[in-house]
């Protein structure tokens, strides 16, 4: 009689379990599609091909500078409240430096009041808010002519305090930047404030003007030919550089270093993601099972998409290098068949004593029969 009937029965049961479960990091796409079909397909499976790349590039956001920002051309500086002026009347030091020559220039400055007026000897208060330097020079010259013969007047702005732009977000030095007689460009303001490269989302620089928000892809516009250098800032503008907290790609499965990758640039490709984490594991990964899982905000109205790349194809590197990631994408690398089988066997080790026990029980049963 066979000594191992119970052992064979136990092994049969274990192999039956192996047929029922799929251990290891593996995406059963056939079963997934079948289940989704029964649920009116919440997920769409798409093979990454040149045609798919063309379709993906067609839905990329417009990265050009909005025409509305290029339409603004700075005018001559207009005076406003709290601006500091140094007014020179040649041959009349009592008007130019009433505090005396020994005082600093700033001490002899004339400051525009909060209501936009300026007081000056002999001529009284003048509404200067909105005037240019030249316009104010002419007004003072004309009024002083009543008291001084052919006055020679010169005006310099030594304190630009009325017109400012605000910078916030991932800047090294956020705060205010003054608009001066020299036009201030967006690139100059960003350069002076400095970018916090570890925290910044360079694809999302918001310029808020008159209540309207213009979102600029700073990374793309500064690395490609564009008109970003022709954007001039005006008083009241706000620049906000977004944080990259939500700009992540999640990598899991059969890779060297599963992780969540933060990126601040506007473009990150699938090949860059795989290279950053050390690539698919050569020993355990399946070359045919590289997936990009892209969710949607509302599954009731949209389908989530799972892109599949056959990394064994000769053109796989080219396709991966052209496939652009989006924030919150999940890259999943599946396991090879032998890896799944090895993991299944390793999961049986805690239950190996079942086989041993079955063998011993069978042996004891035969010995008992022989003794009788």
Chain-averaged pLDDT: 80
Cα-to-Cα separation, first versus last residue: 15 Å
Helix proportion of residues, in percent? 25-40%
**Element order, helices and strands?**
HHEHHEHEEEHEEEHEEHEEEHEEHEHH
Domain Outer-membrane lipoprotein Wza C-terminal: 336-363
Keywords: Cell outer membrane, Ion transport, Lipoprotein, Membrane, Palmitate, Polysaccharide transport, Porin, Signal, Sugar transport, Transmembrane, Transmembrane beta strand, Transport
Subcellular location: Cell outer membrane
Pfam family, one: SLBB_2
General description of the model:
- The chain is rod-shaped, with a radius of gyration of 37 Å.
- The longest helix is centred in the last third of the chain and has 20 residues, at 352-371.
- The strands form four sheets. It has a six-stranded mixed beta sheet with strand order 1-15-14-16-12-13, with helices on both faces.
- Helix 1 runs antiparallel to helix 12.
- The model is unreliable at 1-25 and 350-362 (pLDDT under 50).
- Helix content is 31%, strand content 24%.
- It is of the alpha+beta class and 372 residues long.
- The chain is built from twelve helices and 16 strands.
- It folds into three domains: 29-60 and 266-346, Outer membrane lipoprotein wza fold like (Roll), CATH 3.10.560; 67-74 and 163-243, Outer membrane lipoprotein wza fold like (Roll), CATH 3.10.560.10; 84-159, wza like fold.
């Amino acid at each position: 009689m066979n000594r191992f009937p119970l052992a064979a029965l136990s092994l049969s049961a274990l192999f039956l379990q192996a047929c029922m479960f799929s251990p290891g990091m593996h995406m059963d796409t056939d079963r997934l599609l079948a289940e989704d079909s029964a649920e009116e397909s919440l997920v769409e499976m798409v093979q990454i091909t040149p045609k798919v790349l063309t379709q993906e590039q067609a839905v990329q956001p417009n990265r050009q500078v909005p025409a509305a920002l290029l339409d603004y051309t700075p005018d001559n500086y207009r005076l406003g409240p709290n601006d500091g002026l140094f007014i020179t009347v040649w041959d009349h030091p009592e008007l130019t430096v009433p505090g005396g020559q020994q005082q600093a220039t700033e001490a002899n400055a004339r400051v525009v009041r909060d209501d936009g007026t300026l007081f000056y000897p002999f001529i009284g208060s003048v509404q200067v808010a909105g005037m240019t330097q030249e316009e104010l020079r002419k007004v003072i010259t004309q009024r002083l002519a009543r008291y001084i013969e052919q006055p020679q007047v010169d005006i310099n702005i030594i304190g630009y305090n009325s017109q400012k732009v605000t910078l916030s977000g991932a800047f090294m030095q956020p705060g205010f930047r003054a608009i001066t007689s020299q036009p201030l460009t967006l690139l100059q303001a960003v350069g002076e404030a400095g970018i916090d490269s570890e925290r910044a989302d360079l694809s999302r620089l918001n310029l808020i003007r008159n209540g309207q928000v213009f979102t600029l892809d700073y990374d793309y516009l500064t690395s490609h030919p564009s008109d970003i250098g022709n954007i001039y800032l005006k008083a009241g503008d706000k620049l906000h550089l977004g944080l990259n907290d939500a700009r992540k790609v999640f990598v899991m499965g059969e890779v060297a270093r599963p992780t969540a990758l933060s990126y601040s640039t506007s473009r990150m490709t699938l090949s860059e993601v795989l290279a950053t984490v050390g690539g698919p594991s050569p020993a355990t990964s399946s070359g045919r099972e590289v997936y990009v899982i892209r969710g949607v905000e509302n599954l009731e109205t949209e389908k989530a998409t799972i892109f599949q790349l056959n990394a064994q194809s000769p053109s796989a590197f080219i396709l991966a290098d052209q496939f652009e990631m989006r924030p919150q994408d999940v890259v999943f690398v599946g396991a090879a068949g032998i890896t799944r089988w090895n993991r299944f066997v390793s999961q049986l080790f805690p239950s190996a004593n079942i086989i041993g026990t079955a063998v011993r029980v069978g042996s004891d049963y035969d010995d008992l029969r022989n003794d009788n």
